[in-house]
Amino acid sequence: MKNLRGRVAVITGASRGIGAAIAEALAQEGCRLVLAARSQDQLNKVADRLRQQYGVETLAVPTDISDERQTRALVETADAHFGTVDILVNNAGMGIYGAIDELNLDDLRHVFEINFFGALAALQAATQVMRRQGRGTIVNISSIIGKFPQPLGGGYVATKFALQGASGAARAELKRDNIDLILICPGLTETEFSQHSRISIPGAERRQGQKHALMQGIDPRRVGARTVTAIKRGEREVYITWLDRLLVWFATTFPGPLQWLLVYVARYRRQRFEQEEKTSGQ
């Protein structure tokens, strides 16, 4: 397995949740860290804590991943400061709730800018540095939802389908440059993801900022630890739990029963949103 001590890792969406967990797991391995997110105050807190706790050098770079220029500048800043970029973790992401026929397309475009185009811009910038040094690892944080549809979550699913397709192509293309591309597909994880998702359901927009997950997810530290193991091993595609793998297997093996199940899930989720909207309006 690879020794990561002293390697330079750039992590987007590093101020909380999975991104902060991956950053901590890499700090435990002795990596030097470049942390990116929009919230400078929260980013600085994470950077300071990891520096003090693990004795690693950290650099906080406030970045809006939906802005291509800022995203490319992030990688350039990391390279200028440390002289290299060994690992890129494309973690920054945003969800969107709404039926496909009702989605606000401006909302959807914004989510694509973060989940897909932002990740692609970071990948393109990082590969230039990695080619120069003859090695590197790119980690794209996707989701098991990128493997099968999610009613009232089709916009988000579309961004992850796109990311997974691009990742598969890039993995083959970058192999000759000794650059690994790893796709991480977590299931439901206990983060603030749903609270920061766009609500694109007519009449329910004011529920922005509320939690919408149907159940409790796993600790993001499990995702962080598994991601670092995948980097050290040079793995291709990773699931976090056996249940995640089972769900994907069922979805791909039994598309007919899955479709009928999704019809009922769509009905349930729609009723749940409508009921919660009525309750919050009272």
Provide tags for this entry.
282 residues; alpha/beta; Rossmann fold; 7-stranded parallel β-sheet; two-stranded parallel sheet
Short description, anyone?
By secondary structure, the protein is an alpha/beta fold. It has helices spanning 17-28, 40-54, 68-82, 105-133, 154-174, 220-233, 242-253, 255-281; strands at residues 8-12, 32-37, 58-62, 87-90, 96-97, 136-141, 179-185, 198-199, 237-239.
Structure in words:
With 282 residues, the protein is of the alpha/beta class. The protein has a single domain (8-281), classed as Rossmann fold. The chain has 8 helices and 9 strands. It has helices spanning 17-28, 40-54, 68-82, 105-133, 154-174, 220-233, 242-253, 255-281, and strands spanning 8-12, 32-37, 58-62, 87-90, 96-97, 136-141, 179-185, 198-199, 237-239. The chain has a 7-stranded parallel beta sheet with strand order 3-2-1-4-6-7-9, with helices on both faces. The protein is globular, with a radius of gyration of 19 Å. The chain starts with 7 loop residues before the first strand and ends with a helix.
How many domains make up the 3D coordinates? Answer: 1
For this structure, what is the CATH homologous superfamily? Answer: NAD(P)-binding Rossmann-like Domain
Computed structural class:
alpha/beta
Q: Please count the helical segments.
A: 8
Share in β-strands: 5-15%
State the name of the first-level CATH class: Alpha Beta
CATH fold name, please?
Answer: Rossmann fold
- Percentage of residues in helical conformation: 40-55%
Largest sheet: 7 strands, parallel
Under the CATH scheme, which architecture would be assigned?
Answer: 3-Layer(aba) Sandwich
- What does the average pLDDT come to? 90
What string, H for helix and E for strand, traces the elements in order? EHEHEHEEHEHEEHEHH
Number of strands: 9
Terminal-residue CA separation:
57 Å
Note the overall shape.
globular
Spans of at least 5 consecutive residues with low confidence: none
The side-by-side strand order for the widest beta sheet comes to 3-2-1-4-6-7-9
